[in-house]
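Researcher: Quick test of sequence recovery. Tokens follow.
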């Protein structure tokens, strides 16, 4: 059975959450457009080059504990957003994001 694009990237939840991005010594505040347990799409005005390493610190929505994650920019398009993958999340961090996505993603819609 072929794997769909949705399965490869994980289920996405349209979620607007504040996030602080750290890159070198610069910090940016932006919001997510959507989130999955493997990454996020950021509504960033800054177009980061593909491969850029970022430190992301999520705020504390009631459903999600404060998380500080390392991410790698996988795509970036001015005006459309920035796709960031989390390549080295701990099991606890992945579980927290997965629970958040599963709790808010309508079942049966993949």
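Model:
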């Amino acid at each position: 059975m072929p794997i769909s694009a949705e399965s490869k990237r994980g289920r996405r939840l349209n979620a607007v959450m504040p996030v602080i991005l750290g890159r070198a010594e610069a910090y940016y505040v932006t919001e997510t457009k959507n989130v999955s347990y493997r990454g996020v799409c950021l509504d960033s005005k800054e177009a980061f080059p593909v491969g850029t390493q970022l430190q992301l610190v999520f705020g504390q929505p009631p459903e999600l504990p404060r998380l500080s994650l390392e991410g790698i920019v996988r795509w970036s398009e001015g005006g459309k957003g920035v796709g960031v993958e989390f390549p080295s999340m701990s099991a606890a961090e992945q579980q927290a994001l997965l629970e958040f996505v599963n709790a808010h993603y309508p079942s049966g819609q993949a």
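Residues 1-8 have pLDDT under 50 and may be disordered.
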